[in-house]
Amino acid sequence: MFGIWGIFSSVVFYLTLAVGIGGLLGNALVLWHLGFHIKKGPFAVYVLHLAAADFLFLGCQLAFSAVRAALGSEHSLHFPVTFVAFSVGLWLLAAFSTERCLSDLFPTCYWGCRPRHTSGVVCGLSWALAPPAVLLTADACGLLRESTRPLACLRYHVASVTGLLALACAACAAGLVLLVWVACCSPRQRPRFFGAVLGSGLLLLVCGLPCLLCWTLRPYLPSFVLSAFFPLAALLACIHCSARPLIYFMVGRQPGGREPLRAVLRRSLGEGTQLGASGVSLPMGRV
């Protein structure tokens, strides 16, 4: 039994390394093209910050995996530190999916009322608020140091889990609403960004929620159960962060002929012009 468990742990460990390295390269390409070669519209800003959060998560995951390979055991900071980057990505994904959904359901009203720097402000708030929300909870629950404050842990943990679940529900609901709207109600042609939003929502549902579930149950699970569940949740979270660049490139590519990656990425984001309900083009180049 222990031999089988050892083989399983090794397979999960090396799969996590392989997926993490591939995800780092994919997100680095997204960061390079969006950061230096593509004019950043409002949704490209979200994707840029989302790729940065995914890159940070995968980088921390690989760094702690190297520490585990060297020391033979998990470092106590592994989960709280990597979950900071995961939670930032969840905030950004919820905002990106919700805005994309609203922009297609109510294009004229939405673009007419949307403040100019909404994307930058939301991304800044995500980076500013998500880390304290995770680290305060981790500190109160004894994940950052030996002492535990049970009452503070309970309060922070309930608030943290409630907020993260709300963000996950918002991201998945936006994808579902957009799917129903495009499939059944919208008279317009299916937008390019539809695949990116729907694919990101499905990835979160299948591969992202186990990591969120691990964060939710960590204070209450025995250590031996956690040691079995956490590596698998980490692998799925790596898949969640690594597959997003593939979704962008698959959605944006056209059959026949090779194109520069920046052109494929720009097309998958639907940047350029967005048609309103009356057929009037609305500017998309403003942040």
UniProtKB/TrEMBL annotation:
The keyword Ribosomal protein appears for this protein: no
User: What do the Gene Ontology cellular component annotations say?
Assistant: plasma membrane
Spell out the family assignment given in the record's similarity comment: Belongs to the G-protein coupled receptor 1 family. Mas subfamily.
Annotated PANTHER family: MAS-RELATED G-PROTEIN COUPLED RECEPTOR, MAS-RELATED G-PROTEIN COUPLED RECEPTOR MEMBER G
Tell me yes or no: is Membrane among this UniProt entry's keywords: yes
Q: Could you tell me which species this protein originates from?
A: Ovis ammon polii
Q: Which domain of life is it from?
A: Eukaryota
For this entry, the protein name equals Mas-related G-protein coupled receptor member G
User: Which positions, given as ranges, span the membrane?
Assistant: 12-34, 46-71, 77-97, 118-138, 158-181, 193-218, 224-243
The subcellular location is: Cell membrane
Q: Which UniProt keywords apply?
A: Cell membrane, G-protein coupled receptor, Membrane, Receptor, Transducer, Transmembrane, Transmembrane helix
As for membrane topology, the entry says: Multi-pass membrane protein
- Single GO molecular-function term? G protein-coupled receptor activity
